[in-house]
Amino acid sequence: MYILGLSSYYHDSAAALIKNGKVICAAEEERFTRVKHDNSFPINAINFCLKYADINISQINKMAYYEKPLLKFERILETFVETYPKSFLTFIKGIPEWLDYKIKVEKTIKQKTGYKGKIYYIPHHLSHASVAFLASPFKRAAILTIDGVGDCPTTQLWIGEGTKITPLKVINFPHSLGLLYSTFTSFLGFKVNNDEYKVMGLAAYGRPRYVDRIRKTIDLKEDGSFSLNLKYFSFRESFKMWSSKFEEEFGKPRSFDGKITKRDKDLAASVQQVTEEVYFKILNYLYRITKVKNLCIGGGVALNSLANGKIYQNTPFVKIHIFGSAGDSGAALGSALYTYHAMFGNKKRERIKDLYVGGSYNDIEIEDELIKASVKYKKYKTYDKLLKKVASELKKNKIIGWFNGRMELGPRALGARSILANPKNRYMKDKVNKIKRREEFRPFAGSVLQDKVSELFEVPEKNHYSPFMNFCFKVKKDKQYLISAIVHEDKTCRIQTVNKDNGLYYELIKEFYRLTGISCILNTSFNLNKEPIVENPKQAIEDFIETEIDYLILGNYVVRKPNHKE
C-alpha cells in the first residue's frame, strides 16, 4: 500500500511517501523551489517522491492531508466575527486565496497531480502526534503537541499505546505558546516562522529582567493550562503581532536591520524563560495524568532545543523522543502514518532511526556538474582514503562542505548536507558564521559519537541517544576548551549523537577522533543565509564557489578552489 502525505499553505510544505507503513522518501518543497519555508502546493516534492519510488500517481492507494481545511476556515471566520471591524482589512486581503484554492485542497490535489482516489484529512495536531509517536521507539508514551496554530488547537495532550493515539486535553486558538514566542520574535526584528531560533540563540546573552512583565501577557494555571491576555496581541485582527499595549509595556520594536540592544537580549532571555515555565508545567501535568515515563513531543515549539534539554531536570520523564522534523513538514509524514495505522488497522510500526529520506546523486550526475562548473576536483576510489583526507583537513582547521548520500528531512543538517569544521578553536565560530552570512551571536551544533557523548556533555545517561539535534546540553566544564567553537554563551551546545545509522558521516567523525582525540565536530546546514539547505550538486558547487569554504566533498569527489594549493 502506497500512501502519500502532504502539508501546504502555511509554512514548510512537504510530501512524504510510505509503502506498507515504511518511509520511502520525503522532502520539503523549499528544497526544489529555493524559497525558504515555501508554503506553496508541494508539486515538486510530490514529483520527487513518485520519481524516487519509480511509480506514477495511479499507483498511490491513498492520499493524506495534514489538517482539516474546513475546520481552519471556520476558525478564521469565527475570528473575523469576534474582532470585526478591526480585522476587516486583513480579512478582505486574505479571503480571496482561501476562496480560490486553500479551501479547495481536494480540487487542487486532483488537478495538479491527476490523483483520483480518496483523500483523508487528518487534524493538524493529530498529524503532529502521529509522527511524534508512531515513528518513535516507544510502545506506550505520553504525547504533547504544541505549536503556533494549525486548524484550531495550539496545544494538545495525548496518550499513545501501540498504534492508538487518544486525546486527553486541548487548548485552542488564539491561546498559543508558539504565537507568544513568535510575537517576541517579530518584535525583536526577526521573521516569524523562520527566526525563532535566533531568539533562542540571543537569549544566552541577556538577563531575564522582563519575566514579570511577560507574565502579564499570559495567564498560567498550575495544571499548565494557559490563556493569552489578548489586550497585548493583535495577530487576530492585523498584520502586526502585538498591540499598542504591548509597546507600552516593552517599548518600541527593533527594526529588521536595527542594532541589537541590551533590552533586546534581555527580552529574548525573558521570553525563553517564560516559555520554559509554561512548557514544564504542561509536561508535569501530562505526566500526572498518564504516569508514563516515555514522552513524545511534536509541533513547532518542539524545535526549542534549549527548553528540550531541560525537560530531564524539570519533569519526571525519563525517555524523550522528538522527531527531527517536528514542524509542518513532518506533519505531512504524520498524516500518512496515521492513515496507514488508524484508518486501516495496521498494527506493525516502523521506527524511524534516521532522516536520510531525500534525494541522492550518483557519480555521473556529480561529475557532470563539476565539469560544467570548471572546478578542480579529484575522485577518490575508496571511502577510506577520502575520510582520511577530509579528517586531516578538518584537523588543519579547513572548512568542509559535505554533500553525501540522501538529503535529510527537516530543518537540521544531520551529516548529509552539512558544513563541517574543527570545533576546537574559538575563532572557527566567527569564521563559519561569516561564510554563512549569519549574525555573530548565532551558535553552532555539534555532531558527537554516541558512545563518547557523556565525556563531553552533561547528558542524562552514558550513551544518550539524540540523533535529530533537538536537545541542548551543558558542555562539561573541563571539556569546554576542547570544543570551544560550539560552546554557546550559556555553556550549552545543541547536539546530534552519531552512530552506525549515520553511515559515512559516522566513519568521518571516528577518523577525526582518531587523529585529534576529539569525538565531536562542528556541524551546520549547507546553505547561505536566507536560502534553504542545498538539494543537488549544482547548488552545493555554487555555494562553495561563492564562499570561503576550503573543500567541497560531493560523494567520492573532493573539490578545491581554483587558486588552492595542496
Description:
The protein has 566 residues and is an alpha/beta fold. It has three domains: 2-125 and 335-343, ATPase, nucleotide binding domain (Nucleotidyltransferase, domain 5, 2-Layer Sandwich), CATH 3.30.420; 171-322, ATPase, nucleotide binding domain (Nucleotidyltransferase, domain 5, 2-Layer Sandwich); 363-560, DHBP synthase (Alpha-Beta Complex). The strands form four sheets. It has a nine-stranded mixed beta sheet with strand order 13-21-20-14-15-19-16-18-17, with helices on both faces. The chain has a five-stranded mixed beta sheet with strand order 3-2-1-4-5. The model has no long low-confidence stretch (mean pLDDT 95).
CATH architecture of the largest domain, by name, is Alpha-Beta Complex
Count of β-strands: 21
Distance between the termini: 52 Å
| Low-pLDDT regions | none
**What is the overall number of helices?**
20
**How many structural domains?**
3
CATH superfamily of the largest domain: Carbamoyltransferase, C-terminal domain
Question: How much beta, percentage-wise?
Answer: 15-25%
Question: If strands are numbered along the chain, what order do they take across the biggest sheet?
Answer: 13-21-20-14-15-19-16-18-17
CATH class of the largest domain, named: Alpha Beta
Outline type: globular
Average per-residue pLDDT, rounded, comes to 95
Q: What is the SS-derived class? A: alpha/beta
CATH topology of the largest domain: DHBP synthase
Helix content percent band: 25-40%
Radius of gyration: 23 Å
| Major β-sheet annotation | 9 strands, mixed
